[in-house]
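Dear Dr. H.,

I hope your travels went smoothly. While you were away I took the liberty of generating a structure for the chain from your last submission, since the lab meeting agenda had it listed for discussion. I wanted you to have the full record in hand beforehand rather than looking at slides cold. The sequence, exactly as received, is reproduced here:
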Amino acid sequence: MTDKIFIIGCGAVGTSLGKALKDAGNNVIGIYDTDPLNARNAATIIGTEAFGGALPSRIRDADMVLLTVTDSAIESVAEQAKGEELYSATQVWVHCSGRLTSAALEPLCPFVAGTGSMHPAWAFPPKTLTPIPPGVYFAVEGQRAGTEVMAQRIQELHGNAVFVPPEARTAYHAAMVMASNYMVVLLASAHGLLKGIGVDPEQIDPMLLSLSESAIFRARRLGIGASLSGPIRRGDMGVVEDHVRALANSPYEKALYIAAGKAAVKLAATQPGYCPDTAVTLSELLDRLAYEHWSRMPPKPSAD
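The corresponding predicted structure, in token form, is as follows:
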């Protein structure tokens, strides 16, 4: 099936999705951005027509309108499109927010065939064209016509559609942030620690990425819970306490280690053969270390 698609928003998601949908055989009839230069750059990458400034009437010609703007702009774009009658009764409007539901497009609901939300569970660094490989997951929800069209687009991309109920959308997005964005934060924190103790800067990233990739490999092969390793999985309380002491001069990394350690104890306790007493003792140890850490943090300066 070949649909005419119009994209509103020229960031990394809009440009990357537009290129992928065009390569899958769809007719991307245009891409819009308030900044004409951004629109031209994205249009060149995708191979389509650029529109800048005001929302164009060309939107009416699309079968599917894809909003890849910031969360705060989605409803206002929908309101503007409604006010200027930039829609047709046969269209489906879809946004790509991870947090918001299709209700953000409510202003257009009486006038179009369907609405939906379709969030790619994939990392899109800013100002970067990111290929979307087969197997990427998309969190979807919306009205029937919207979900049917989204399912078709995802199938064309050889992806996987996962229904996330509207009331769980924010929790879903928080989980995605933890699995992607915060993984990068953990790597950056580890990088800073290694740099601080004098490890060759050129070797730090390759070493950390090699280790992280081995953890992902184990998780794929064994399952996430069964792939946990390290001192907490072994129940080695002395190592955990020594680690926290070694981070005394790195308060934010220390707090991160303790919080992650608490989560690791919870995960380890779900594994066959893990001693319940060990889980309790480790949890109490980390609680004590957390109390010591936060009680020594300097107070925030008074607003006065």
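Two observations you may find useful: Residues 100 and 209 are 32 Å apart (CA to CA). Residues 4-167 form a domain with the Rossmann fold fold (CATH 3.40.50.720).

With kind regards,
E. W.
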